[in-house]
Design a protein that fits this description.
Blueprint (H helix, E strand, L loop, with lengths): L1 H12 L26 H33 L7 H7 L2 H13 L27 H10 L10 H4 L7 H19 L8 H11 L1 H4 L7 H15 L3 H6 L14 H11 L3 H22 L4 H14 L6 H19 L5
Helix pairs in contact: 1-2, 7-8, 7-10, 7-12, 8-13, 10-12, 13-15
Amino acid sequence: MRKIYDILKRMRETEGGFNPQDFDTDGLENALDSDEGEDPEQEDAEVDGDEEEFAGEETLGEDMEEDIAARLKGIDINDADEVWSRLTTEEQEEFQKLITSGDIMKLMPDYKPWWNKAKNSKIVVIPSPEEAAKKESSMPEICGNIARFSDICKKVPSPCLHYNLWNILSAYACVARFFGGEQRTNASEAVAHLVNLSATLKYGTNFEDAEDAIISVEMEAITTGNGPAGAAAVGSAGTGSNFLVESREQLQQDARQLMGTRANKLAALSDVLHLLQQTRATSKRKIPQEAEFQKLFALASGSVELDRTKLSQLARKIEFMLSYVAREEVL
């Protein structure tokens, strides 16, 4: 099943399609290390046998990869139903077992958030131009034409705005990690999780402390996953785990790094605004039956129903926050 994921990812990233030479041999290069004290002739015989065995396994693995690639050739890999129909019964059963056990997350590659930086490193690493360009391109584009704060608010900003921002960006970090940075591929679900995690967005809660604002996200994640529907939504049904918040330490580190620079704050808020706008645009095309189902699901999981009115309100709130952060340039 890991090979299926690797092939899908490679097919997505390259125009040339699948090439068996692109895949490694799963660390078999150093598999023939010898132990001291063994008989040399016996050792040579064992090595010869092991080499033949590994060669056979490697050939079989390549044949399986080519078979899977042939079945997936020419299809839209973003079409889950089509990909599923091309898997064998055994592959489908293995995939279902991974979901049931919660081990499905082990298939996902390690996600490196765009806001990440080395922790307490005394060594300054100068990235190559290609690495620098890749990191820059992974950061969400900052919205243009951000309104001046003084034009939309004549009052001195409330101190709670700063801590509310901690809450929103903490929730954003969880969602970005949960979707592996691909939250825009399913904006409606991403927005639902984001609003559920942020008490500021969900209830209009004001915070007076950064730590409370962060921990609130962790608490909301636990609450959202309590009911059967909520647990299914976050992938923790029957496993007792919560995939939306990996750990409090990780959550705190993400929040501090996102809040660490003006550019990070503007980029994250711009991404949130894009998700809200994308979801609102999609909501126009929903059929009545789908809208009713989402309403019932929201009630069952303790979520807020995100109709077009609510989405518009949230978008205006994020636009206000963008203006609030942008004003830092002239302070």
